[in-house]
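pinging the channel bc i need a second pair of eyes. not urgent but kinda urgent?? the chain im working w is below, pasted from the shared doc
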Amino acid sequence: MSDFNEFDQQGSAPNRNTGSIISHAFEMYKGVFLYAAVVTIIYFLADFLVQSISGVNYWSDFSNFRDFDAEDYDYSRWNRPGMSLYYSGYGLLSIFISPLFVGLIYITNKFNNKVQIEFSDLFIGYRQNLGNILLYSLITNIILTIAAMMCVIPVFFVFPLFLLGYPILLFENANAMDAISKTYNIAKENYGVFLGTGILAALISISGVLLCCFGLIFTYPFIYIAMYSVYCAYLGKPRQITYK
């Protein structure tokens, strides 16, 4: 059960433009990057478990990205044995681990409000509004998967429409459909800012690939911090949530 307490107005919120939102997200990220790294490590360990079960070593394929345009590029590896099982397992993983990223957003708000952070805060998404978080993740994953099947590029245009979903589920205790409706309506009215923010945040999140993929531990969760900054910009800095 949660209470929304009136809190003093310390903390910050960015202006409604891409530059201000990304800058705000960087400031927040500097304060919570160790928790972000923990979340990513948990996520990658779970992914490696899925890979071991499916018999797929997906991460080794990153070493072949430099040859993407080569004539001998091995497209058949996407259809090799175990890939269907891996994709199915990965889809389930992305849904069931989504409350962990909601917990990271919760921690970011505590940092912004200068409230003491506890490690257990990372798991708040598993205790608060869990059903709607999982349902929202399922619906958005289906939508984004369909977009990805259309030559990947449409994902960059669709994803910004869902930037506010997780913060709305957390701070407003909304149901999944209301969260989808609200984030879509706000994003479509401010699509340029949401598109720019979504693309830049996504590029920053995947930039760790350049460091032999190890850097992803530190960069991957940035997109979720950006979601919090977008929420602050368009819906105001959330009051601190306390749980009983």
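so The chain has one domain: 2-65+81-243. and The radius of gyration is 18 Å. — does that match what u expected or am i reading it wrong
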